[in-house]
Write a structure and sequence with these properties.
The structure is a homodimer. Chain A is α+β, with helices and mostly antiparallel strands. Helix content of chain A is 26%, strand content 22%. Chain A contains 18 helices and 38 strands. Chain A has a nine-stranded antiparallel sheet with strand order 7-8-9-10-18-14-13-12-16. In chain A, helix 4 crosses helix 17 and helix 6 crosses helix 7. Chain A is globular.
Chain lengths: 758, 758
């Protein structure tokens, strides 16, 4: 009966399932300035992200960091005048980076082998492009390269990038492959690379990089729709052992080359209007693996078929949520959903083989292996969202993390891992949160004892980031770490998640130990200032203390004002420290309205003025739960107001529409949850804090087929205050719901009113 | 009946099978100056060669070749005063080199991390040693390190090196692992390396080198008999990405490190007289592969058991030949047999996985995969010897070469290959000779059509070393190659071997084509000088022409005098060119007696004055068949005299007892054949040219259990001339026998006399 009503209701709004919400995706959102998103073609959780790179700022001479590098984490800045080429791997929204593998650039006329610089067109192989010609869709990208008179189109399968180049000049038509190109590149990052021309339509190769990932191997196999006429495999480096190689002309039509500085040029016989389709399968395992991926996914299909399949894949994902909203709102919403479904990425070949953290080739038996775990960001909302929206995949992500721990010489779960490497980025050990959250919310497709063992090993690995001291003193001392307070608070929270997991599987004494450890947040609370504050080994707090400053002040991506609220697992306890709920409310009111002088963020790479509300910085994650803390005070309705303001002002349909790094989907997942009207304020608990839905009506279809149907009654700008929330028709007595309320479908009604309901 | 007689005959000389001929092996033979042999521990065809390295002369600054490097092809020179350490891979007797992987050095007292130089003791971790303490046996080596007061013993399994160190000092006992050490080393040769301490008795790692082998990967797993107390994994290189690594103290007790310049130091708690046993398994596949090898081959056994097994393995090989000879002669003979059985090397893990030329991991199904094919050297006598002595292994070596061709982007058979790489060293495509030789001699364990296809592809690969021109003009022109004559002659011979193979499988037209190509030797014959001579593209011979000179004169490792005789497949035709058998005989007489001024070899690295007989240079292979050419003249007995002289004067029981590089056993195989009284003068034919046995009685047991029993009647210095040879009691009418005469056993009697029998 309920179901019937629902369908009628949906139809009433003109919804027809399957109409294709992918049309609302604007991949350019976030490509200007801070978002660090990429506009190219990819599939949900796809291994390939085939996307234009607009610059390749290298490190300075002497391999020192050049601050300009930062903005090219995704290889692309919207307002750049040139395109260097099209590479196959990109992170979505990170603040450090890597990848940019296997850059291809179609060329007509003279071929240059270095990219050149943007300010001097034709100084290299890069090309100016027609901004009006540029179009990006979920799974498709196109652009016109004016310097070469070539139309470029890109699409992708899971593991294959597919290019279609339409040539108009016919004199000299080339494809350039730059094995040196990379994101966050420095001289020496490409440790080794290799190319082999197997026949006139098949080329394979690999490269090994020492970047953010210390020991990364990536392989490709590439086919052409037309035969190569002639080719050059060039090595720009000196070859030390050449004794017997002199017998060959290695540069021209010689089918193999290895070295650190390889470039390849392939010549094709094209008539005006001819199209060259290039398909590049990639693999973390081997060239053979890349070839298998290519043969299975892309070779049987033409470009348009592959593009169609990509659209279908995105529609299947995005049509599971229907909203009643304006087109502009839909663009923002579905693009957020799109960004939230980009990573973690499938990291195994079509035959389930994958490279492990131990450098061995493994076979993923009984699960799909994933990589790209930006856990300091994503434990907050992205993983909880995937748990709700994609529980099977979320489960496999946990199995992937357990495989990682098994392969780790430390026995540790991932901190920030990608492509079979641990890069140890940021603080804490938030894999614990992700695993515990899944377990307490009923995910059962992974072995709890093995998981708990890996969690325990991770949380007790003495030489990791001040952990020995944390276990001895109950906090990380200021002398030990420049992020001592952040680290302490995050350890404490993660410890609590372990205790929750241990509790549910009957490991009571372990649960107790870690419950106690989770109270360590108290050790860095300073009653004098009412804030979390860096403490020295001798137990004295550090002086001087500027609660607005982040840099080297014991914090990371958040100052004392923000981090003092990072006790998601014991907000009652925190309020006691602060002096009660009223104090918390006052603190929040001040936080959101105070003036944060620009000096505190003007030189900070990852803070955009657009995302600042008082001292609340939405572009950085440590505050993401803060708007929902009003739910613990006497005035929960304030949550809705703050959330609404963030949703409406910090997320826009514009290339500069993200106020900070998307951080592998965390920013977008925050948007999705918040627009639905609830947020996982403390992963590891089953609780969601209620906010205020962004739309009049929302329907989210779960993987099990049931629906979460959210209706906002009296949806109107004049009625901004949540008066009451009904779950399946019954009024809720607190501003919280539980995962069990949602996982088999639910009807949530938010009743809005003109004035606050006290 | 024959068998019974044989046994009685053997017993009469006091032979008892299984008494252990390995005791006659002196691994030091060839370790001084030219031999380039190594004295360390290895098994027959073993993958590990665990041996002391006495110096690590690097390239000059700027990575230019330092001529001193040459003498360290096997890492060892007998008279050097210091030992750098003990590394696990070595070539036997090569003239270029590579390897030297995973050098270990036990240290007491202060640890230095660089090797230092020999002229300054204690300038690095290298140690002086007591020459009297040094002992080498087949499968065992020991030495006393005076600087550290440590006794070192080495032994090996197929894939595992086993070290036993007896410490006498107890203050600071360390083991140093130098990942940068290598043979033929230059700055940058180690492209990447990695170390991981799995637990206190297990360490794994790998390195990737760009040396003679362009893209080489080698892995290890190492166990200790005592736990590590503490350790240092050091990176001497700048680490560019260190952003988040600062959270760790990476140098001390941190279990993983990667980079290009790694060193590791492990500390052990030792009392005086305590022994530390270190077992290092290696693999071309993976660390896991190395660990499997270690676990299967070495972990269950103690040092003495492994040493015993190594001796048993060598006895099983060496006892198959029994000779009546003095101890000194036995030492020379069995050491030659030992050296002939060192390579090609098994190149697969215990589970049959191996790395292929295509960088993929393959499984050897139905064969054992081998590597180290120094074919320009070894097609002459080593492969023919293995075919006779080890037909099953010889067959698998051919299957390994076919796998190589299958994995080759060129589709070509190996030229000079090792460790999953082709290094393209030297001239010709002599894999054809090895395969054809096996086929015509009845080896049938490989697919002939596939083999012929690979041979044809190899012999028609246009861009290979002047081959296009050779196919067009019938010779390689002097403008094209500095070795144009050598190359032409070797192609012609190899072509003939292809024709022989084609003929026997009914590919008559192909056989005819290549039979015709094999006559190309005539195109570089100059009637004016009566010699092979470099020819220009326009058909004119090059002027001036110095038939004694090699360098850049169209030849390699042999001058025109030598190479003019390199037509093993058509000696009748060659004699016609030269003017008949008498002219050939006179040519040979002159060759062996003329004076070759020193200037023609004084600056040549690989020619030792010891190995020069007139203008015959035994240390270089192109002349190896020459002594046997007398068999085509009116005075075949001259062969016996020359052979005897070479056997007695160019092979001695002394570290300097080899007159040239052993060249992966070719020099030694020449010795074995020649001492047996016959030689494969033209591999690809079934013929052996008879010479003169070195001993009074020899028995060689074939793999099929039958015996070749060789008796020299009237064996006495006064009776140096072969009068008659009887095969199974029947006199032979020509100085040749065939493989079919030998392969199921034979009785060969050489009747000697006081004067030449004309």
């Amino acid at each position: 009966m309920k179901k019937v009503l629902l369908i009628i209701s949906l139809l009433a709004y003109g919804w027809v399932f399957g109409q294709g919400n992918s049309k609302y995706v604007n991949p350019f959102i976030g490509t200007d300035r801070m978002g660090h998103t990429f506009p190219g073609a990819t599939l949900p959780f796809g291994f390939v992200q085939l996307s234009p790179d607009t610059d390749t700022i290298p490190y300075n001479e002497g391999n020192t960091y050049n601050p300009l590098v930062y903005q090219y984490c995704a290889g692309y800045q919207y307002n750049d005048p040139t395109i260097v080429g099209f590479s196959h791997t990109h992170f979505n929204g990170t603040g450090h980076s890597d990848l940019g593998d296997f850059l291809l650039m179609p060329v007509s006329g003279e071929v240059k082998i270095n990219p050149g610089i943007a300010s001097q067109p034709r100084s290299g192989y890069r090309s100016r492009y027609d901004k009006n010609s540029e179009k990006a869709e979920a799974g498709y990208y196109r652009v016109y390269l004016t310097d070469y008179d070539i139309n470029v189109e890109l699409t992708a399968t899971q593991r294959t990038g597919v290019h279609r180049y339409t040539f108009h000049r016919t004199d000299s038509c080339y494809l350039l492959l730059d094995m040196m190109h990379g994101i966050y590149n420095y001289d020496g990052k490409v440790v080794w690379s290799s190319l082999r021309v197997i026949n006139d339509t098949l080329v394979v190769g690999y490269r090994q990089t020492n970047g953010w990932a210390r020991d990364r191997f990536i392989y490709f196999a590439m086919t052409f729709s037309k035969p190569i006429q002639e080719y050059y495999l060039l090595n720009l480096d000196k070859e030390t052992y050449t004794g017997f190689w002199r017998r060959w002309n290695m540069d021209h039509n010689f089918p193999e080359r290895s070295g650190k500085k390889l470039k390849a040029i392939f010549n094709f016989d094209m008539r005006s209007g001819d199209q060259l389709v290039v398909k590049m399968g990639i693999s973390g395992v081997s060239e053979q693996g890349a070839l298998k991926n290519l043969l299975a996914e892309a070779v049987p299909f033409n470009f348009d078929e592959i593009r169609y399949q990509a659209t279908q894949s995105w529609d299947a994902e995005l049509d599971r949520v229907q909203i009643v909203a304006s087109d502009e709102e839909k663009i923002v919403f579905y693009t957020a959903l799109y960004h939230a479904l980009l990573s973690p990425n499938i990291y195994q070949d079509i035959d389930a083989k994958y490279r492990g953290l131990d450098y061995e080739i493994h076979t993923a038996i009984g699960f799909t292996n994933y990589t790209v775990f930006s856990l300091w960001d994503t434990f907050r909302a992205l993983h909880p969202f995937l748990l709700l929206y994609h529980p099977l995949q979320a489960n496999d992500m946990i199995l992937s993390m357990l495989a990682h721990a098994n392969q780790s010489v430390h026995g540790m779960l991932p901190v920030w891992s990608h492509h079979a490497n641990e890069n140890w980025c940021m603080t804490g050990y938030h894999a614990l949160s992700v695993i515990a959250d899944a377990w307490v919310k009923g995910i059962r497709g992974f072995p709890p004892d093995e998981a708990l063992k890996a969690m325990l090993q991770t949380a007790t690995y003495k030489s990791y980031d001040g952990l020995d001291e944390y276990m001895q003193l109950g906090y990380v001392a200021s002398e030990t770490s420049s992020t001592s307070v952040s680290t302490t608070l995050e350890y404490a929270y993660d410890d609590w998640t372990l205790s929750q997991m241990a509790l549910t599987i009957g490991k009571d004494s372990l649960a107790k130990i870690f419950k106690n450890r989770s109270l360590n947040y108290r050790n860095v609370f300073d009653y004098e200032t009412g804030m979390m504050r860096p403490k020295k080994r001798n137990g004295h707090f550090v002086k001087p203390f500027d609660p607005l400053s982040t840099h080297n002040q014991g914090f990371i991506e958040g100052n004392a004002w923000t981090y003092s609220l990072f006790v998601p697992h014991d907000i009652e306890g925190l309020m006691q420290l602060m002096g009660g709920a009223d104090k918390l409310e006052a603190y929040l009111d001040t936080l959101f309205t105070m003036v944060l002088p620009e000096k505190y963020y003007e030189n900070t790479e990852d803070i955009s003025k657009d995302g600042v509300m008082g001292n609340y910085i939405h572009g950085n994650e440590p505050g993401h739960h803060i708007p929902y803390l009003y739910n613990y005070t006497a005035h929960p309705w304030k949550t809705g107001l703050k959330v609404e303001k963030i949703l409406k002002t910090f997320y826009r349909n514009s290339p500069s529409g993200l106020c900070g790094n998307d951080d592998c989907g965390q920013m977008s997942a925050w948007y999705i949850f918040s627009s639905l009207g609830f947020y996982p304020i403390c992963p590891g608990s089953t609780e969601y804090a209620l906010g205020k839905p962004a739309f009049k009506e929302i329907n989210l279809r779960l993987e099990n087929g049931s629906n979460i149907h959210i209706v906002t009654r009296n949806f109107h700008a004049d009625k901004p205050y949540v008066q009451q929330v009904l779950l399946n028709g019954k009024p809720l007595s607190t501003p919280f719901i539980h995962h069990s309320d949602l996982k088999d479908g639910a009807q949530l009604e938010f009743i809005m009113g003109k004035s606050p309901k006290i």
